[in-house]
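Quick log. Single chain, no ligands specified.
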Amino acid sequence: MRYVIAIILVAVGLLLMQQHTIHKLQGQNDSLSQSKSALLDSVHHYKSSEGLNAAEMAAVRLSVDELRKYREQDLKLIETLKTKGRDIEHYVTVNTHTRDTIYTVLRDSIIRRDTIMEPVRAIDLDKRWYSIHGYIAADTLMGTLNTRSSLKIVETVKYKRFLGFLWKTHKIKNRKVDVVSLNPNETIENVDFVIIEE
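-> predicted structure:
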């Protein structure tokens, strides 16, 4: 009788360990399939209802070791921040490109250098998203260009449903980010959304 109880306890223990391993492997499989689909899909560009440029990207899930192996430059940047690396759950990288046509009137001005007075054409342009200040002398433009940008990043989380159609569970099905540029002259070229997992 003792042997039967011992065998049953060992069998139950093995079944519980096996169930735990299966659950862990299913989570890793879900993570890999989400990352694969995110890497294979390109960034989806679209215009918001207000006509602003926007982009959408699914999440890539990486462990800390994978981040160290494949995204070493991003990890070095994270380590320079004043937060602890283990407190960071995800990060977003956004590349933008700004293109606009500039129309302004050049005005005559004079620059004094020692005792020589040199006539130049000056440019002063202030817009909401950029400003240009400088002058043109001897067919050369010298000055400063200041650009301003404003991005809104929204994360969307979809949860798995019990039996596929009933109530939501706490398990995450997928994550994605939408990035909207408030500058109408700015185009979002690339979005990179990385989730750091333990």
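The chain has a mean pLDDT of 80.
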